[in-house]
Structures are given as C-alpha cells and as structure tokens.
Amino acid sequence: MAVDRERVKALVHELLLAIGEDPDRPGLTLTPQRVADAYTEFFAGVGQDASAPLARTISVARGPAPEALPSGAVMIRDVRFRSICEHHLLPFLGTAHLAYLPDQKVVGLGALTRVVEILSARPQVQERLGEQIADTLMLSLEAKGVLVVLDAEHSCLTMRGERQPDASTVTIAARGELADPFARGELISLINSGRR
Questions:
Q1: Which fold has domain 5-42?
Q2: Which residue in 28, 127, 175, 181 is deepest, having the highest Cβ count within 10 Å?
Q3: Among candidate residues 90, 151, 168, 87, the one with its CA nearest the CA of residue 116
Q4: pTM of this prediction exceeds 0.70
Q5: CATH code for the domain defined by 58-192
C-alpha cells in the first residue's frame, strides 16, 4: 500500500493549524508537501515482502566448488538504518550487525541490507525490528542460525522526556544454533573488534 500523499499533505496542514502556526506563512507553505515526500520514503516498507530480496540464493552444494561448504558464519556489520518509532512517530537511527550460519544456501550481501531497509521503513519498535529481521533471514535462507544486533539512538529518548543525548539502545535477536550465548560469543567479539 502506497502512502496517500494528498491525505498526508492535508493532515500536516491541519497539524500546523492545531499547534497554532500559520501554514500559509512563507517558511511553511511547502512543509505539507515536504512531509508527504518524507513519509513516502520513511514508510516505503509498509506492505512490502521483506523476504523478496532473499529469493535469489546461491546453492553452495551445487556450486563450482561443492567441497568448500561454509564452515562458519557469514557476517555483515555496520549496516546503517533509520526507522520511525511507532509510539511517537519520531526517528531512531542506528547500526545493524547481521550474521547467519549457512546450511546449503548463501545470498548476496546486498540482499541482507535490503531486508533491513524494508523492515525498518515502517512504523517500528527496535525490539520487533530485530526479531523480524532474524525471522526473515532464518526462514528464507533455511539457515542453521541467525544473529541480529541492533544499536540505535531514539529521538524519543534523546530529544524529549528524559533527554539523554548519549543513550543508545542495543537489542539482540538470535535463532537456531546462534540462540546459545556461548555459540554467538565469537560473533559478538567480531562485531566489537576494531572499535574504540
């Protein structure tokens, strides 16, 4: 389902009136259109199938070197994402670290980042976002294990209420063999390697 831009524009116009502003003053005349454009981008993942990018897998068992089956995890770290908190409609920005233990299939690394983009482009909470990414990877790749670590700063915590500008939230979602904290220890240390 696509964002109804005209409806968003009308609602932003009303919102400006509701907060006591003049939506027709020079600085605000284009604001409803700008917000509609931004919301179209921010919520582009609503209704999209997050597993679609993972449909094109590579069979390692039937590839050019079937004797070279993966013996460890595939990890991509420092994937930047942004989402909108469903509680306050304020942004949260962060970094995703993704790992999976392949069985018979691997996938292009860009497909992993696309899953994050789709699932984060909808009203979200960080806890659910990590779980959805983990479930999508686990099921679509038929992986032996999945680990998703998200580290994000939430505007609802940094800009309002308690106003903790340096606070970040870390969540972990794990499936299969990587649900065991000991099994994922090496991956957690790899995520942190090279950090200051």
A1: GTP Cyclohydrolase I; Chain A, domain 1 (1.10.286)
A2: 175
A3: 151
A4: yes
A5: 3.30.1130.10
